[in-house]
Please model this.
Amino acid sequence: MNVEGAAVERRYGRALLPWFHVVFSLATVAAGLTTILVLTLRRPALVHIALAAVISGAAMAWGTARFIPSDRSDGGVPPARPARGRSSWQEPRTLLIGSIALLAVFIEGVGYDWTTVAFVDGHGASSVISVVALTLFLSGWAPGRLFGGRPLDRWGRRTALQASFACVVLGSLLVVTGTMSLALIGIALWGAGASLGFPVPVSTAADDPGKSAARISVVSTIGYGAFLAGPALVGFLANHVGIREALLAATAAAVFGLLIVPAVFKRQPPTTPNSRARPQPEPP
Model:
């Protein structure tokens, strides 16, 4: 789906992957609300699962039937075949892009996995306030993806990612060191900063249509590795130094991201509405 989304993005000549990712997130919210409704109505789980399977299957069949034909490129000309040679796993730039995805997924995961625990155990908040904090995180995260295409088009990937990581640094520090009020502000900033970190590397890996599938597979595999390692690492740190201090792992990840973004992304000139250039492939 990321490969197809990147192909659609190239055709339109503007950033769309963040929007695709937020639609996924909104669908998970819709699924949760549907589950609450089914439980409230006391319907059997089999009815719920069967209904979900039918709706999801129909939506998948409808969507995939409209994929861009795989034998055509953006201009209607068959794409160049990937050159034989080293694997995408051996391309230094692709691995660097993957490392940014890893940091971004780690930052994102720490936010929505540990926010409620951090506010209850670290700030002494009530369960209600902890849910408010998580809602603030999601309130910054979802709109950041929904409307993130505009700053990407205007300022370019490098500037947008640097701003995102800087936002995470500030927000996470407020959560760790601030009062309750500042921590609530900080978690919203953290969510906003985490919104573009994964879609942008995926989009960058797809700049060259001939190798987009291979490179996206590498970047996605590296990035999703944080879902396995992230919760365990923060839990380990929390057992030794406390949950608030353990969240500094996200701060460190954001600082590291700030340092390596310039090594991956060239500075891009702002794009005007009348001159939306398609992203150009960069050398691996």
